[in-house]
Amino acid sequence: MDWGQILNNTAYWIFSPETIAYAIAATGLAVQFGYGGLLNFGMAGFMALGAYGYAISILSFGLPWWVGILIGCLAAVAFAFILGIPTLRLRADYLAIVTIAAAEIVRLLLTTQLFDEWTNSADGLGGYHAGFRAANPFPEGKYGFGPWVWTQDQLWVRVFGMILLAIAVYLVWALMRSPWGRVLKGIREDEDAVRSLGKNVFAYKMQALIIGGVFGALGGVIFALPSAVVPATYTTSLTFFIWTILLLGGAATVFGPVVGSVIFWVIMGFLDNVLPALAQSNVLPLSSLQAGTLRFILVGVALMLIVIFRPQGIFGNKRELTFVK
Description:
With 325 residues, the chain is mostly helical. It contains 13 helices and two strands.
């Protein structure tokens, strides 16, 4: 096996757009679940709306790229209202069922022929990059070193994504230190006690759902910037990946989603290179395709072990997890 190439390919994922996009979405899920106690399994729907809102605004209406981002965020806000009004009074397990179903409804609506004029149904959308790339402040050329060598457009996607991620992390840090954040954490622990103090629990939950949904939409935009928007991407597995990232880094932490995303994608990239190589070397009694699928099994087992032995995540505090008992 070529370990140099394997490590080179693995290191790529540290600064990949996927890693940044999932970190932003996981930060939104931290607001909803880690701090608010909302068991949202519909983050894939928020990411899809952000990506499609961005792409459709540019392709169908000729709007500037930055307006497309705002429209993607507004679509997430609307989805949060539609989803939250009838569901936020439900128990956590019922909320999980409703949100995962709502995300699937969004994905299936994007694939239907009814909206083919705007969504291109199952084929997805592409060719919306010109405006964003025209705003690129980096001159043409190659940047970076080692496994991190990018064109000016690739660098611009990463820099822009990291700026959004830094803003998201700062906002979460500031919000959770504010009175609003303290009330939200109180709702997570015992919403009846918070309600008895005269606080509107439903309004706080809705605000948490909206803020987390906007972060999810921004993650969807970053995810779509390098290539295309394809509805098959926004399946339930995407949501489960985000949950794995959140639990890995720490549900009720500010930097946990960022570290969790890096660790998750580095491990996924490493296994994606090592397992097929082991199969080709006859170390594993599997085909290369089967070995590539094995990584998802290993990630699933790892998630189970995290929940059992380290539910607070790498940076989490066990005292922050009393609400999940």
